[in-house]
């Protein structure tokens, strides 16, 4: 049985905070930023599960990256509204209550730390948004008294909130992630040209996903930002449901000051499909915003489980639609040689060479990043 493979890319690098060279492009800096493919005969360093805690600091970032090297076709993506009201002014006629964000209601339906169960299917909810409840006017809290998740002690990079932040969802039928489950997940957006310089509500178009690897640095795919200027890109962290701002914690938007493409990126075959976006200012650490760990250069992931997350299309090709709620799917990592041999059985042919910059994952029926 032939395996269906998904070619994922993983960034094999460490973001150093040391001073390298103020002007010009130092090859050593390129290696520190983008890493190098592991030697064919090198012995792998054993995978470790305990990673050291990292400091949420911006010190040294501008010293490390001083100069940059070197327009995707416009597509019709779903809009990202910048501002939505927190309270729905529609009052159900027969209930004598108001639809408010669930954490603004102290009627006993949620506990003191803001945690509750939220059914993302509307079902019998009289409100139009699943994050709202019908609350008696006497139980509505002021915004400065709202029930928000209690801050947790930071446990280092890459901490996944398996149970979500502020609430847990039920009724998830399409691999929806919990709110705040992947705090390093960001959305790379493009401002809508028609709303930037007008009095209209500012809107954005979804470009692709990315990972927060430093408070001021985002790792993404080079093909997503190829041909774009830094002013054409906005990064949003802490997002979950793109069509509402009723979540218990807000998202954070940052402009991009610099786009750094991998010097060996090839758009034709997507070799070295990596880019780093340097943000205009650091993201603020929160329960739904934090950095991910980066693997060691020679770390091996064969036969381990990895999780892909994002707002990507539900189907491959022109019929696919971008998602509203963040999705997730777990996949097995596949050995590079095994993946290459399987791909040689396709129309790629028996001489196909899988570049070292690719990582393979998948092969399980009905599970991939497009569904």
TrEMBL record:
<keyword id="KW-1015">Disulfide bond</keyword>
<dbReference type="InterPro" id="IPR001254">
    <property type="entry name" value="Trypsin_dom"/>
</dbReference>
<dbReference type="InterPro" id="IPR018114">
    <property type="entry name" value="TRYPSIN_HIS"/>
</dbReference>
<comment type="similarity">
    <text>Belongs to the peptidase S1 family. CLIP subfamily.</text>
</comment>
<keyword id="KW-0325">Glycoprotein</keyword>
<keyword id="KW-0732">Signal</keyword>
<dbReference type="GO" id="GO:0006508">
    <property type="term" value="P:proteolysis"/>
</dbReference>
<feature type="domain" description="Peptidase S1">
    <location>
        <begin position="169"/>
        <end position="371"/>
    </location>
</feature>
<dbReference type="Pfam" id="PF00089">
    <property type="entry name" value="Trypsin"/>
</dbReference>
<dbReference type="GO" id="GO:0004252">
    <property type="term" value="F:serine-type endopeptidase activity"/>
</dbReference>
<dbReference type="InterPro" id="IPR041515">
    <property type="entry name" value="PPAF-2-like_Clip"/>
</dbReference>
<feature type="signal peptide">
    <location>
        <begin position="1"/>
        <end position="20"/>
    </location>
</feature>
<protein>
    <recommendedName>
        <fullName>Peptidase S1 domain-containing protein</fullName>
    </recommendedName>
</protein>
<dbReference type="Pfam" id="PF18322">
    <property type="entry name" value="CLIP_1"/>
</dbReference>
